[in-house]
Amino acid sequence: MYDKPKIGLALAGGVGYCLAHIGVLKALEEEKVKVDVLAGTSGGALIGALYASGIGAGRLEEIAKNISWSQLMSPTMIFRNKGLVSSEPIEKLVEELIGKDRRFSELKLPLSVATVDLISGDEVMFPHSPDDLIAPAVRASCSVPVVFAPVKIGQWLLSDGGIKDPLPIKPLKKYNPELMIGVAFATGKYEPTNLFEIGVRSMMLANDKILEAYEQELDVLIKCQTGEISSWDLKTAVQLIDVGYEAARQNIAKLKGCCDNKKINLG
Questions:
Q1: Any bridge partners for residue 40, and if so which?
Q2: The Cα angle at residue 153 between residues 148 and 159, in degrees rounded to 5
Q3: What's the confidence (pLDDT) of residue 248?
Q4: At what angle do helices 252-261 and 240-250 cross, to 10 degrees?
Q5: In whole angstroms, what is the distance from residue 128 CA to residue 181 CA?
Q6: Phi-psi bin for 148: left (phi > 0), alpha (psi -120 to 50), beta?
Q7: Would residue 173 be called left, alpha or beta, if left means φ above 0 and alpha means ψ between -120 and 50 degrees?
Q8: What's phi and psi for 55, nearest 5 deg?
Q9: Which of 135, 151, 152 is closest to 143 using CA atoms?
Q10: Could you tell me which of 74, 50, 250, 37 has the C-alpha nearest to residue 138?
Q11: Exposed, middle or buried by CB within 10 Å (0-12, 13-18, 19+), for 239?
Q12: Considering only 122-136, 209-223, 240-254, which range has the smallest mean pLDDT?
C-alpha cells in the first residue's frame, strides 16, 4: 500500500527524446523534489518503470550512454508480425534491469503505463491488476506503429500509448496527487531521414495541440527543446539528458512556488 501521493510526474513519449526525462529527474533529485507517483507513455513508460523500480537518475544516465538500437529492436517477418521490427528486446532489457517477471505491485513507486488497443481503438492503462507484469506493458507502450510490431496481451493488440495520449495526465490524476508535473518535447525543426523518424515525428506533430491543452491541467509543464537533435540517433540523443536538465532547472522556481502554495515540504 502506497501513501497518498504529493507529487505526480507524467512522462511523454518520443523515442530517443525520452532521454531528456533522465535530465529532468536528475534536476528534481538535486532539489530534493521527491516524486511519489509516475505515469508514462512510450519511452516515458520505459524511463518511468526504471525509476519507479528504484533506479536513480545517475544510474539511468549510465545506462543511456551505453544503449544501442540492437538492445531495443530485432527483425520480424513483416507481413506476419505487422511491423518492421520487434520490440521484444525492450521487454528483455526491462527484465534485465529490474528483474524477470516483476509485477507492478513490486515497484517502489506507483506507475501507470499507457497503451492503445489497435482492435477496439481504446486506451488501455496498466496495471489492470497489481499482478500485471511490468515488462510486457512497457514493451507495448513503446511499440511505435508500423515501425514496431504491436504486442498481443490477452484480447488486446497493443501499440504506442502516444497514438491517443502523448502525455498521460488522466491516469496520473487517478492517484490524486497534490501537485502534477508534466514533461514533454517541443518538436523542433529538422528533416527526418528514415521511416522510423517520419513515423515518430508525424505522431509528435499531430499531438502538438493536445499538449498545449494539457498545460492548463498541470501545475508545471517542463517542455524540452529538442532542436535539430534526431530521435533516431541514440548517440546524439544522449545530449538531451542535458537539455532535460536545463529545462527542469528553468522551472525549479515555479515548482518550488507551487510546493509552497500547497504546503508540500521538499527534502
A1: 11, 113
A2: 30
A3: 97
A4: 50
A5: 24
A6: beta
A7: alpha
A8: -85, 115
A9: 151
A10: 50
A11: middle
A12: 209-223
- How many Å is the maximal CA-CA distance in the chain? 55
In sequence order, the β-bridge partners of residue 190 are: none
Cβ atoms of 10 and 83 within 8 Å: the answer is: no
Beta-bridged to residue 85, according to DSSP, are: 75, 148
Q: Are 47 and 18 in contact (CB under 8 A)?
A: yes
Looking up cell 529532468 gives 24
87: CB partners within 8 A, 6+ apart: 72, 73, 139, 140, 142, 143, 148, 149, 151
Overall average pLDDT of the 115-121 stretch: 95
* Residue 142: all three cell numbers together: 513503446
**Contact status, residue 51 vs residue 25, Cβ threshold 8 Å:** yes
Q: Which cell numbers in the block locate residue 12? A: 511523454
* Each residue's pLDDT tens digit, 26-60: 999 999 999 999 999 999 999 999 999 999 999 99
Classify residue 114 by its DSSP letter: E
Average pLDDT taken over every residue of the chain: 86
Q: Count of CB atoms within 10 A of residue 222's CB?
A: 27
> What's the predicted TM-score (pTM) here?
0.90
- Residue 36's alpha-carbon distances to 29, 80, 108, 121, in angstroms, are 12, 41, 9, 30
Residues present in the chain in total: 267
DSSP-derived 3-state class of residue 115 = strand
Q: What is the CA radius of gyration of the chain?
A: 17
Strands 7-11, 37-41: pairing is parallel
- Is residue 20 within 8 Å of residue 244, measured between CB atoms? yes
> In the structure, what pLDDT confidence band is assigned to residue 144 with cuts at 50, 70 and 90?
confident
